[in-house]
Amino acid sequence: MLDRAILALFALLVAALSLVTLAVIAGWTVPLDLFELSLLRPDYRFIAGLVAAVLFLLALRFFLASVRPAAAKEEQAIIKSADLGTASIALPALENLVTRAARQVKGVREVRPSLKVFPEGLAVKLNITVSPDRNLPELAAALQQQVHEYIVATVGLEVPEVQVRVNGIYQEGLRRVE
To answer: Is the predicted pLDDT of residue 95 greater than 80, yes or no?
Structure first.
């Protein structure tokens, strides 16, 4: 909030200086006379230098803020809103819960979840690697059901969508008989 107020003040000062410069270009000489007077008297020179230094520091601060990469904001899902505040859970924590639920389904070897928080609930996409001896449509249905029920029961979030993508079939190393 403070940055916005300072930025607004800086923008107004730059706008005022631009208007004065345009007026001088158009032929108005009063600002030039005042500027010349400020350079002749030491106390006015100090004030002009102070204003110039403040404007320079503000410009430098906003320039550095614009160049600096923005901090990644961690997305969260709101679990419960009440009069005393909200309870929320971070997406990495939700990913851990989804992975835990998915690993409970027999035949799932690896899970890489991708989550999106929407107003209607949590959308889950699962990229999985499965055992070769499983029926894929049954496994996908069981996985969708397990993840949905686990998240609803554990976190209380609605899960309107669970997409499953089988990225690979787990291949165990061949065993040699000697």
So the answer is: yes
pLDDT of 71 above 70: no
Integer angstrom CA distances of residue 144 from 5, 69, 122, 132: 49, 38, 13, 19
**Per-residue confidence band for 49, with pLDDT thresholds at 50, 70 and 90:** confident
Instruction: Scan for tokens 């500027």, then name that residue.
Output: 35
DSSP alpha helix (H) spans, 120-171: 136-154
Non-local (6+) Cβ contacts of 29 within 8 A are none
Give all strands (DSSP E) within 91-135, no chain letters.
108-118, 121-130
In this prediction the pTM is 0.55
Rounded to the nearest 5°, which phi and psi values hold at 130? -120, 165
